[in-house]
């Protein structure tokens, strides 16, 4: 995996968020939706690269997929890891907890953007990537460093496991 | 300042490709209302801001540039190496030094684009991916007080699909 200095990526992401705020006339909710959408489009493309570069990685279920994202996916792309916790009883919902994320370096949110989910693109990426491995999920932030919390906590909820479109049992 | 850290280069590529494509979709929607060009300005503006911020970061400990040519040389060497991971291959200028052409024979940001098979439409297909880097260069130059327009062209030689020239017109 080729690496670059994070600042170019971080500033490009920041400038993107700023432009979306302008495009949407400061409507923060619309920007959150837009970021998620863009992330989804990225996720469905990015999963191929992830699977190609992490040879042998197979997830049998949602629990393994969550661990795979937290330990390998985030590491491979953003250079950070998350811990997976707060599972519900039937293992369909969990939290990914990150105490660091290069996307928010040099970022401070002005007060009028307190409802902006600045890193919402990441939710979309998870949603898109998981959909490509047949797991339809919802993803949202429950804690956010930029909104005064001490960590990022992303909630990941499995909605449905869709049918395999091919048979890879043998 | 935070320590230099790294992310996968593909993070930037995915973001940048999605930016171009999402604005393209938006243009298509707006075209029906007769306003299909807004995205170019938005993409350029995103690049402009990034270029401005990066140029400031890269020159914190540097003496002021004496003239436009010195600024352009900095862009061709240090700035290009930081962002596009190689230097500009050829620099040309006119007698009055109001026009500079920066040619990169293997422009890094074009290497992973999957383009339509028919060669004739490539120029247009690629052009939209060059708006953001044009903004980036314009933003960097503006942070050194150089007010200009930047446009880009790709090579028409099919054997050099990533060869690309940026034209800087000083205002």
TrEMBL record, chain A:
<dbReference type="InterPro" id="IPR024096">
    <property type="entry name" value="NO_sig/Golgi_transp_ligand-bd"/>
</dbReference>
<keyword id="KW-0813">Transport</keyword>
<keyword id="KW-0256">Endoplasmic reticulum</keyword>
<keyword id="KW-0931">ER-Golgi transport</keyword>
<dbReference type="GO" id="GO:0005794">
    <property type="term" value="C:Golgi apparatus"/>
</dbReference>
<dbReference type="GO" id="GO:0030008">
    <property type="term" value="C:TRAPP complex"/>
</dbReference>
<comment type="similarity">
    <text>Belongs to the TRAPP small subunits family. BET3 subfamily.</text>
</comment>
<dbReference type="Pfam" id="PF04051">
    <property type="entry name" value="TRAPP"/>
</dbReference>
<dbReference type="GO" id="GO:0005783">
    <property type="term" value="C:endoplasmic reticulum"/>
</dbReference>
<dbReference type="GO" id="GO:0016236">
    <property type="term" value="P:macroautophagy"/>
</dbReference>
<dbReference type="InterPro" id="IPR016721">
    <property type="entry name" value="Bet3"/>
</dbReference>
<dbReference type="InterPro" id="IPR007194">
    <property type="entry name" value="TRAPP_component"/>
</dbReference>
<comment type="function">
    <text>May play a role in vesicular transport from endoplasmic reticulum to Golgi.</text>
</comment>
<protein>
    <recommendedName>
        <fullName>Trafficking protein particle complex subunit</fullName>
    </recommendedName>
</protein>
<dbReference type="GO" id="GO:0048193">
    <property type="term" value="P:Golgi vesicle transport"/>
</dbReference>
<comment type="subunit">
    <text>Homodimer.</text>
</comment>
<keyword id="KW-0333">Golgi apparatus</keyword>
From TrEMBL, chain B:
<dbReference type="GO" id="GO:0005802">
    <property type="term" value="C:trans-Golgi network"/>
</dbReference>
<comment type="similarity">
    <text>Belongs to the TRAPP small subunits family. BET3 subfamily.</text>
</comment>
<dbReference type="GO" id="GO:0005801">
    <property type="term" value="C:cis-Golgi network"/>
</dbReference>
<dbReference type="InterPro" id="IPR037992">
    <property type="entry name" value="TRAPPC6/Trs33"/>
</dbReference>
<dbReference type="InterPro" id="IPR007194">
    <property type="entry name" value="TRAPP_component"/>
</dbReference>
<dbReference type="GO" id="GO:0030008">
    <property type="term" value="C:TRAPP complex"/>
</dbReference>
<dbReference type="InterPro" id="IPR024096">
    <property type="entry name" value="NO_sig/Golgi_transp_ligand-bd"/>
</dbReference>
<dbReference type="GO" id="GO:0006888">
    <property type="term" value="P:endoplasmic reticulum to Golgi vesicle-mediated transport"/>
</dbReference>
<dbReference type="Pfam" id="PF04051">
    <property type="entry name" value="TRAPP"/>
</dbReference>
<protein>
    <recommendedName>
        <fullName>Trafficking protein particle complex subunit 6B</fullName>
    </recommendedName>
</protein>
């Amino acid at each position: 995996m080729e690496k670059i200095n994070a600042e170019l990526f971080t500033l490009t992401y920041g400038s993107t968020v700023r432009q979306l705020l302008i495009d949407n006339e400061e409507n923060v909710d619309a920007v959150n939706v837009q970021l998620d959408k863009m992330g989804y489009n990225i996720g469905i493309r990015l999963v191929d690269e992830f699977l190609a570069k992490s040879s042998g990685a197979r997830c049998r279920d949602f629990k393994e997929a969550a661990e795979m994202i937290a330990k390998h996916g985030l590491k491979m792309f953003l250079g950070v890891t998350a811990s997976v916790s707060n599972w519900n009883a039937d293992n369909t919902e969990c939290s990914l907890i990150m105490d660091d994320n290069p996307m928010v370096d040099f970022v401070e949110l002005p007060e009028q953007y307190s409802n902006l989910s600045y890193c919402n693109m990441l939710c979309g990426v998870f949603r898109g990537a998981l959909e490509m491995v047949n797991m339809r999920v919802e993803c949202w932030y429950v804690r956010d460093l930029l909104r005064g919390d001490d960590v990022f906590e992303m909630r990941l909820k499995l909605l449905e496991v869709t049918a395999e479109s091919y048979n890879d049992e043998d | 300042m935070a320590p230099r850290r790294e992310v996968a280069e593909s993070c930037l590529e995915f973001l940048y490709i999605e930016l171009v494509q999402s604005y393209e979709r938006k243009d298509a929607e707006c075209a029906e209302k007769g306003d299909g060009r807004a995205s170019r300005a938005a993409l350029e503006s995103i690049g402009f801001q990034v270029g401005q911020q990066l140029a400031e970061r890269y020159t914190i400990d540097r003496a002021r540039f004496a003239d436009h040519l010195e600024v352009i040389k900095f862009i061709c060497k240090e700035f290009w190496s930081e962002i596009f991971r190689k230097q500009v291959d050829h620099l040309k200028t006119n007698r009055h030094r109001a026009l500079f052409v920066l040619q990169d024979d293997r422009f890094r940001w074009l290497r992973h684009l999957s383009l339509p098979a028919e060669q004739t439409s490539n120029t247009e297909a690629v052009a939209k991916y060059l708006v953001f880097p044009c903004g980036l260069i314009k933003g960097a130059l503006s942070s050194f007080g150089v007010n200009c327009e930047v446009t880009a062209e790709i090579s028409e030689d099919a054997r050099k699909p990533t060869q690309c020239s940026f034209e800087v017109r000083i205002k």
